């Protein structure tokens, strides 16, 4: 891949896993971080008015999970067959369900409703969803699917810091040790380790 650019905000969230995948694959790329106050100038230039956006030789790829899946195929991080691809997609869809609930809370403008929704989801949704993630990682020898490293592991590792912050759970790693171990495994990969050590700070 040539002339690669990745557009996102100056946070980790849905793009950090993509950044780590590119680094892991030895792919040079321009890491374009758009400040919130400049987003309105960029929004109309994006097909779905959303970030992240991956650009390769002028062609743009949008939607975070679709980009991760594409990079997985390009970088040898997808499944070996249709069943293995399904296993990755299935657990990532489960994670996306949880992320979508987190986003509902994040973008709730009313402080009272934000608190109500956070407490409701923290009681009725997040624990069960995270328990399924813990169980799935245990069943796959410390990985998200198929007992081996995949693009799904990078996607979730990229969200890990954000989970701690957005779920308001500083002891997240203690409560969910398999997720913590998966994150540690990904960020310990040689090229990724260097990237994480030098990346701009963000708590989500």
TrEMBL record:
The keyword Transferase applies. Residues 81-204 form the GST C-terminal domain. Homodimer. GO terms for molecular function: glutathione transferase activity. It is an enzyme of class 2 (transferase). This is glutathione transferase. It catalyses: RX + glutathione = an S-substituted glutathione + a halide anion + H(+).
